[in-house]
Amino acid sequence: MSLLNSMIFTISANTGGWELFVNSLLPMITGAIQYTIPLTLITFVLGILLALLIAMMRISNSKVLHVPAVVYVSAIRGTPLLVQLFIIFYGLPTIGLTIDPFPSAIIAFTLNVGAYASEIIRAAILSIPKGQWEAAQTIGMSRSTALRRIILPQAVRVSVPPLSNSFISLVKDTSLASLILVAELFRKAQEIAARTYDFLLLYVEAAIIYWVICFILSLVQTIIEKRLDRYVAK
């Protein structure tokens, strides 16, 4: 028997919690399906779109675009995600702007993903040799056309691995949404634990579910990276 199974079995034997472990599985998975996964997908898509915009502003020669982007990235990266969540959900109502828990989580996670992913995208774009830009200009392409047709397709391949890691990290970060009452996976574990007082068993169960989700995503990441591999074996 594996160490993990032994640990769960020991916990169950001491607390009589094996039945609880099984019965709590469905509510946790339901929380993951209804909130954790949708929150991850929505915020990642919106965050990538925001990140692309911010990255373009960062590499722009215009200070009107460059400076606000730098300030935004610095502010988001320099403050904890939990604080950002609390500002949006608990802070904004003090000035008359009340936002429901799930939209608050979407806003906070989108802003956070946008800041971090923008640096990944910016670095990927800057990693493309300047000769690519010059070649595009030589054949009469504008800067925007060269970016869209030549630079970005190459930058995508460079940015996929770190962006994939960000996506997997986002799955785990969504557990913070439980603190603003979003009924996601970890919130379900907290609610059940508050009734049964089997905190260790239920939190270990939640950790296992997160691990399974991230493990599956890691396998998908590996497949995508192989398909986008820039080097073809000879």
Automatic annotation (TrEMBL):
<dbReference type="InterPro" id="IPR000515">
    <property type="entry name" value="MetI-like"/>
</dbReference>
<dbReference type="InterPro" id="IPR035906">
    <property type="entry name" value="MetI-like_sf"/>
</dbReference>
<keyword id="KW-0472">Membrane</keyword>
<feature type="domain" description="ABC transmembrane type-1">
    <location>
        <begin position="33"/>
        <end position="221"/>
    </location>
</feature>
<dbReference type="GO" id="GO:0015184">
    <property type="term" value="F:L-cystine transmembrane transporter activity"/>
</dbReference>
<protein>
    <submittedName>
        <fullName>Cysteine ABC transporter permease</fullName>
    </submittedName>
</protein>
<feature type="transmembrane region" description="Helical">
    <location>
        <begin position="199"/>
        <end position="224"/>
    </location>
</feature>
<feature type="transmembrane region" description="Helical">
    <location>
        <begin position="69"/>
        <end position="92"/>
    </location>
</feature>
<dbReference type="InterPro" id="IPR010065">
    <property type="entry name" value="AA_ABC_transptr_permease_3TM"/>
</dbReference>
<dbReference type="InterPro" id="IPR043429">
    <property type="entry name" value="ArtM/GltK/GlnP/TcyL/YhdX-like"/>
</dbReference>
<keyword id="KW-0813">Transport</keyword>
<keyword id="KW-0812">Transmembrane</keyword>
<keyword id="KW-0029">Amino-acid transport</keyword>
<dbReference type="GO" id="GO:0043190">
    <property type="term" value="C:ATP-binding cassette (ABC) transporter complex"/>
</dbReference>
<comment type="similarity">
    <text>Belongs to the binding-protein-dependent transport system permease family.</text>
</comment>
<dbReference type="Pfam" id="PF00528">
    <property type="entry name" value="BPD_transp_1"/>
</dbReference>
<feature type="transmembrane region" description="Helical">
    <location>
        <begin position="35"/>
        <end position="57"/>
    </location>
</feature>
<keyword id="KW-1133">Transmembrane helix</keyword>
<keyword id="KW-1003">Cell membrane</keyword>
